[in-house]
Amino acid sequence: MMLTGGSIIRSAMVVAVLLVLLLTRAEAKEQELRIVHVFVALCDNESQGIVPVSAALGNGDDPFNNLYWGAMYGVKTWFGKDAQWELLFSVPNPQTNVLERCVFKHRRFNVCLVADAYRGSEIKQTHLDFLDEAAGKPDESLIKALPQELRAGVSAKNVRMSVYIGHNGLMDFNIAEYPVAKAGNDRDAIILACISRTYFTEALQTGGARPLIWTSGLMAPEAYTLAAALEGWVRNESAEQIRTRAAEAYNKYQKCGFSAAKRLLVSGY
Fold first, then answer.
1. SS3 of 36, please?
2. CB neighbours of 19 closer than 8 A, spacing ≥ 6?
3. Residues 202-220: tens digit of each pLDDT
4. I need a labelling partner for 33 at 20 to 30 A (CA). Which of 12, 42, 141, 218 fits?
């Protein structure tokens, strides 16, 4: 069948409209809010099997001075000074076991970071909560933590990454049963703790999360490594690109050599 001039024009218009719709949907999907939830077990000399640090850095009841929160390389301090992130607000004691919660927003991408400082003596509960979420457990209370203007159309599915930072408690205690993956779970996970790949493999496999960055040896779980990894993640870079960013940051501050940092910070199973 031969098309007339008018038919060709109408067909071209239909194709153009379809392309616009597809591009609009793709752009809308790209602009969906992504939430990163960071579980920080505050460093605690008294209750954790760690090499003791100074009394101020190792007080698990004091987030302000804690090694993993308020100190120079702690999560709150680091992201609070990072030019890529804006601190929207912080809340003391938002829930049981959490001494402070900070909510950050990326300045260029539609990504929020919710960071919770867990009491150091509650490190086991920190692990349990992290693994529950990494397995896809819905947590609407996390959505309520966002500013009102960011909540529209947001649900637990917007939590795209779960992060644990702190001492590897699985070296000290057992978890009888790991959370099983919820249907459709496809969350990424980062675990900045010593030898986390060895100790957390069964837990993440059971929960169905994708290990984006975890460790093959001893490490300093400080916030610059997470910030570097997230900068690649918000740009939808590959796991290898994200791993390279993390290794570069770790080497910059630990002076261990880039190759050593890359052997330490690994991705996938």
1. strand
2. none
3. 999 999 999 999 999 999 9
4. 42
